[in-house]
Design a protein that fits this description.
- The structure holds three protein chains of three kinds.
- Chain A is an all-alpha fold.
- Helix content of chain A is 71%, strand content 2%.
- Chain A folds into two domains: 84 residues, no CATH class; 252 residues, Orthogonal Bundle (ABC transporter involved in vitamin B12 uptake, BtuC).
- The longest helix of chain A has 28 residues.
- Helices cover 71% and strands 2% of the residues of chain B.
- By secondary structure, chain B is mainly α.
- Chain C has three domains: 227 residues, 3-Layer(aba) Sandwich (Rossmann fold); 186 residues, P-loop containing nucleotide triphosphate hydrolases (Rossmann fold), CATH 3.40.50.300; 71 residues, no CATH class.
- Helices cover 34% and strands 23% of the residues of chain C.
- Chain C has 17 helices and 23 strands.
- The chains are: A mainly alpha, B mainly alpha, C alpha/beta.
- Chains in contact: A-B, A-C, B-C.
- Chain C: GO terms for molecular function: ATP binding; ATP hydrolysis activity.
- Chain C: This is ABC transporter ATP-binding protein.
């Protein structure tokens, strides 16, 4: 009998069971955790200490959990916006740039009117930020619809440009004259700051807005007809064309929603925990949100959970840097491997492995 | 030395990271696989190669390690997208983030350290020409990259392997039905792309600017992907595109040397702005993209 | 007695729960043209994939000249002398003919060129070896496929539905080629569901039904009626009744429609004229690849004309050339496209959500929100009225068989109560029972005054259904021919080209 390589093959499941679908992200999380702990051992860190600092500590005290909630806001906002586009197969991966533009637009108000007072200031800042993000995304939409250019590349390039625009402002016209030459704007006045949600923490109303918009995203994607049109465009573009759902409209809508949400998040960041425009306004929220969106299965409810996990991971990473001497880059490694693990787990939701049957092999 | 001479002399070296990565991506895309993780592959290759050179391993070993490291990451990408038929866009982004994270992790203790690059080799006679002479004084990697460009061009134009690769990219079902192992061919193409991206990163961190800094790839992997579109999947045009980007990334320095006052942020954005602009111009010619494009690009193939 | 060229013993192949082939046994002799007869979904294609090594059987064995035959890939099948011509060709459009052939046949370019030309002359398979495949007609592509097979010196040639893409006259030419091949020592496996063709050329026939063999016969000893009974398990359905009806007002008019597409692989349309009235069925015949897809897109609105030329397409008396599909539907237009999965329906969505695709104006959505109860009710009606066999309305469209999905889509479009219904390839890949249902439904709607446009590759279908037939060739439409007093051969001449057609008219 000759030796033949008996490779298993994937057989599509007739229907993906709900239990397996829900289980997959958990399996992915466990798998990624295990692999990363092994990696920490390899670079000579204490895996137990890292595990504790990274995955448990964020939940062990109100102080650190409130920091998780603080991170949750922007991740949730951006990821909900991106997921709508991803379901329509409009891959806006430039949320980072839209976030930065949101921060810049929002900052314009306190930078230009540092003496202004009144309750209108922070809401206008949020609105301006959302507009800024949407405008930045509109460039990508225009390039895609009118010029047929790939939105992945254009939106990413615009993110890199946005970082330079921010640098320019902070080193030039918007630099705080009394800031000892640091690349940052003036500190914002009190009325330019978002109201806090819980006293003694830094959590502000933007978290509430993020949850509100998550609810809207749920209605939009799961119940509304415009959401259905986007979904059809993503699943079967030719069916959308057949039904007369405009592709250009889907691209504009997807990108504007994504840019709006990311811009809002950027505005909330400067008007929230930072209180000024600075170089490090984003710690890669725009990229992390891509992972959040996928990890949440592109479903508005799933995204709430995955955003919480990623926020905790990010706070945990900071903890581990202090307590277990873990390089901060480890968080990025964890995030990347988490998405890879999720994609692997999802393959087994859609397919099951089938080994060549015994009868075939005995005859071969 | 005037600005033109300066740009001509440095252009090829500046173009090499773009060129190597774009050639690798070209081969992968021709086989129908869109790998958006090039940025991460380059970063990992750059970090590994830098570490090898820093510890005295030499450039040859550095390129081998950088290439293999990136290929290993590309193997994960291939497993997820080819083996498990996952979405290529998501998998590419994941690999990109993962690779950048790994590079930062491995390079942590080497931040801002420098190593010695490679000597330049002059082509006798040509190097002494006025104005263009600088073009013919390059390091060995640049010369080898030019050779690789030539080989890949010839491979697509004349060889059976090139023909098979194009066939697999256009219509994997038909290629399977006439007996080609589509999966294996795509795997090989993705791994080749990984090795080339690793080389590109190694060149960036150990030869072109021989220092390590987190984030030093700075979007060059993404521009390499864009270059494949600019070149409408043709080797010669991709080479020209890489030279353009090499020149653009030197234009800032040349302008400053020439006394032109421009905000440095604008100069830093120049490659990205040029990418956006050229992408718009090329892509609006739908007929050209359709004629030269890869029909099955990015679509999972189920045997 | 010598062993037959190929014997199959008890071959079985399942895909998941679907048993595509069950215990198939048959023998193909030397110098034989052997038919595999069966309707859509009977398991013919699966069987061919097993014989050509694309798939491996779950059970059973194959013998080649009496010795066990195990195929791990098409390459190993070719090495043994088995070649195959696919129904949907396995050619690469962006490559040239010679490049396509070089992918399968080893050898120097020059040697290949001279062999291609020699084979072309010997078997009547002329084709330009340096042309790009996307520039070739469907008939020429078939010739390339056959040449490619012949260059590997096969002993057995498998042809999957080879005549479905050819006009009647070209079928004669193909048969002539096949006879010459047989006389030259090549056996042929001829897959078809067309009874008359099999009687004309085959000396043996194996009949398949639902994945099983229901008979081995000499087709020349049986009439079409017998063969049909073996194929579908009962008598062929009766031809449809025709009632003459006075034609009503114009519902669709194309006036000198022309377009040069951006897409280099698409067919240009030039001076296309047609008029379709209420109570009439107009058929568009022609070999696919002559502009059917492009014409259909201009009628459906998936392709639009610039506003200046909007008069070239008129619906219900209004110029609509510049309007999109949704706006045309609002005027009373409905459309069943030729591809069901991915165009007429979204495979990953349930039938209920697929109802929304075009039926949303019937109150399935209000104020931007989906009315799930109404969508479910609509879907239930469609499933009941059009006999869609599905486990439930929540089943994914992709899980339905071709025939049932087609019934669903046709049903959905008919329930929109359109004034103008456009159906492309109404019965492609649909079993005979479902096809008959669909045709009867279309006839009934015509009698009630609906205007119906049908594009089909099947001439018999058009003759069954239509009042008028126009032939599409190279992007141009012929004048209308009255279906009742036109012979298939005449239509065939139009399919071949204007030259032949003009001669026919003057004769």
């Amino acid at each position: 009998m000759s030796m033949r390589l008996a490779l298993p093959h994937l057989v599509r499941r007739e229907r993906a069971s709900l239990a397996v679908t829900l289980l997959a992200p958990l399996v992915a999380l466990s798998g990624a955790t295990l692999v990363n702990l092994l990696l920490y051992v390899a670079i000579g860190k204490q895996p137990g200490a890292v595990f504790h600092a990274m995955l448990l500590e964020p939940f062990l005290s109100w102080a650190s959990f409130s920091e998780v909630l603080l991170k949750l806001g922007p991740l949730l906002l951006i990821a909900q916006g991106l997921a709508i586009g991803f379901r329509a197969k409009v891959f806006n991966i430039g949320a980072e740039g839209q976030f930065i533009l949101g921060a810049i637009f929002a900052s314009a108000i306190p930078v230009w009117y540092p003496q202004a007072t009144g309750g209108w200031i922070w809401p206008s800042m949020l609105l301006a930020g959302a507009m800024g993000g949407a405008l930045w995304a509109a460039i990508t939409a225009f390039w895609r619809v009118r010029l047929n250019a790939n939105e992945i590349l254009v939106s990413l390039m615009l993110s890199l440009v946005a970082a330079q625009v921010l640098n320019y402002l902070l080193l030039g016209p918007w630099k705080d004259p009394n800031g000892f030459n640091f690349p940052q704007s003036v500190m914002f006045q009190y009325d330019a700051m978002l109201p806090l949600l819980f006293e003694g923490t830094r959590v502000n109303v933007s978290l509430l807005i993020a949850f509100l918009l998550s609810g809207l995203a749920f209605v939009f994607m799961q119940r509304s007809f415009p959401g259905y049109r986007l979904e059809v465009g993503g699943l079967a573009p030719r069916a959308a064309a057949y039904a007369g759902f405009s592709e250009a409209r889907a691209i504009w809508l997807s990108l504007l929603i994504g840019g709006f949400a990311a811009g809002l998040a950027g505005a909330a960041e400067v008007a929230g925990p930072l209180g000024q425009l600075q170089r490090s306004i984003s710690t890669g929220y725009g990229y992390s949100a891509i992972i959040v969106a996928y990890l949440g299965g592109l479903h508005p409810l799933g995204i709430v959970l995955s955003a919480l996990v990623m926020a905790a991971l990010s706070i945990g990473g900071d903890n581990a840097m202090v307590s277990a001497d873990l390089p901060i880059a480890a968080v990025r490694v964890f995030q990347g491997s988490l998405l890879i693990a999720y994609l692997i787990a999802m393959a087994f939701v859609r397919y099951r492995l089938e080994w060549p049957s015994a009868s075939t092999r005995s005859r071969a | 030395m005037n600005a033109i001479e300066f740009i001509l002399a440095g252009m090829l070296a500046a173009a090499t990271p773009f060129l190597l990565a774009a050639l690798g991506e070209l081969v992968a895309e021709r086989a129908g696989v869109l790998n958006l993780g090039v940025e991460g592959l380059m970063a990992l290759g750059a970090a590994l190669a830098f570490i090898v050179v820093y510890h005295g391993g030499g450039h040859l070993l550095a390129f081998v390690v950088g290439g293999l490291g990136a290929a290993l990451l590309a193997l994960i990408f291939a497993f997820v997208t080819l083996g498990l038929q996952a979405n290529q866009v998501a998998a590419g982004l994941a690999i990109g983030i993962f690779g950048q994270g790994l590079s930062a992790l491995f390079g942590k203790t080497y931040e801002s350290l420098t190593v010695k690059g490679l000597p330049k080799l002059a082509l006798p006679g040509l190097a002494d020409l006025p104005v263009v002479g600088g073009l013919f004084v390059q390091d060995i990697v640049v010369w080898l990259s030019l050779l690789a460009t030539l080989l890949i061009w010839a491979g697509f134009a004349f060889s059976k392997a090139g023909l098979v690769l194009r066939a697999v990219g256009e219509n994997p079902k038909a290629a399977h039905s006439i007996g080609y192992p589509v999966m294996l061919i795509r795997l090989a193409a993705v791994l080749f792309g990984g090795v080339m991206a690793g080389f590109a990163g190694a060149y960036a961190s150990t030869v072109y600017t021989p220092l390590w800094a987190d984030g030093m790839i700075a979007g060059r992997g993404w521009i390499a992907i864009a270059l494949v579109v600019f070149g409408t999947w043709l080797t010669g045009r991709i080479f020209l595109g890489a030279c353009l980007f090499g020149a653009v990334s030197l234009a800032g320095l040349a302008a400053q040397a020439g006394g032109v006052e421009l905000p440095s942020q604008l100069l830093a954005s120049l490659p990205y702005l040029v990418t956006i602009l050229v992408l718009g111009i090329i892509s609006s010619n739908r007929r050209l993209l359709k004629l030269n494009g890869v029909a099955s690009l990015g679509e999972p193939y189920k045997p | 007695m010598t062993a037959p060229l190929l014997s199959l013993r008890n071959l079985t192949k399942s895909y998941g729960p679907v048993r595509a082939n069950r215990g198939i046994s048959l023998e193909v002799g030397e110098r034989s043209i052997h038919a595999i007869l069966g309707e859509n979904g009977a398991g013919k294609s699966t069987l061919m994939k097993l014989i050509y090594g694309v798939e491996t059987p779950d059970e059973g064995e194959m013998l080649w000249k009496g010795a066990p035959l195990r195929l791990s890939s098409p390459a190993s099948a070719r090495k043994r002398g088995i070649g195959m011509v696919f129904q949907h060709f396995s050619l690469f459009e962006t490559l040239t003919v010679i490049e396509n052939i070089a992918l399968v046949v080893p050898g120097q370019r020059r040697a290949l060129l001279s062999r291609i030309r020699a084979l072309g002359e010997e078997f009547g398979l002329e084709v330009d070896p340096l042309a790009h495949v996307h520039a070739l007609s469907v008939g020429e592509r078939q010739r390339v496929e056959i040449i490619r097979c012949l260059m590997t010196d096969p002993k057995l040639l498998i042809l999957d539905e080879p005549t479905s893409v050819l006009p009647p006259q070209a079928v004669e030419k193909l048969f002539d080629t096949l006879r010459r091949l047989r006389d030259g020592g090549v056996s042929i496996l001829f897959i078809s569901h067309k009874l008359e063709e099999i009687r004309a050329i085959c000396d043996r026939a194996t009949i398949l039904r639902s994945g099983e063999v229901t008979g081995h016969v000499d087709p020349r000893d049986h009439d079409a009626h017998d063969l049909a009974r073996m194929m579908i398990g009962r008598d062929m359905p009766e031809p449809l009744p025709v009632t003459a009806a006075p034609a009503g007002e114009k519902r669709l008019e194309l006036i000198g429609l022309e377009d040069t597409p951006d897409d280099p692989f698409a067919v240009a349309l030039s001076s296309v004229n047609l008029t379709l009235r209420a109570g009439e069925i107009l058929g568009i015949a022609g070999v696919s690849g002559n502009g059917q897809a492009e014409l259909a897109a201009f009628i459906s609105g998936e392709s639009r004309l610039p506003a200046a030329r909007r008069e070239q397409v008129q619906m219900m008396g209004q110029p609509v050339g510049h309007l999109g599909p949704a706006e045309r539907r609002r005027l009373g237009f409905a459309f069943v496209p030729e591809d069901r999965l991915g165009r007429g329906a979204v495979p990953e969505l349930s039938l209920t959500r697929n109802s929304l695709l075009t039926a949303h104006p019937l109150g399935l959505q209000r104020h931007g929100l989906i009315d799930r109860a109404r969508a479910a009710a609509f879907t239930a009606d469609c499933i009941r009225d059009f006999d869609v066999r599905t486990p439930s309305a929540e089943a994914e469209a992709g899980a339905l068989s071709g025939g049932n999905l087609q019934k669903f889509i046709v049903g959905r479009e008919i329930m929109l109560k359109p004034k103008l219904l456009f159906v492309a390839q109404p019965t492609w890949g649909v079993d005979i029972g479902a096809a008959t249902d669909i045709r009867r439904k279309l006839m009934a709607l015509r009698n009630e005054g609906m205007a119906i446009l049908v594009i089909s590759e099947e001439l018999e279908e058009l003759f069954d259904l239509c009042d008028q037939i126009q032939v599409l060739r190279k992007g141009t439409l012929s004048a209308p021919l009255n279906a009742r007093d036109t012979k298939p051969e005449e239509i065939g001449r139009y399919m071949m080209g204007a030259e032949a057609a003009r001669e026919a008219l003057s004769a």
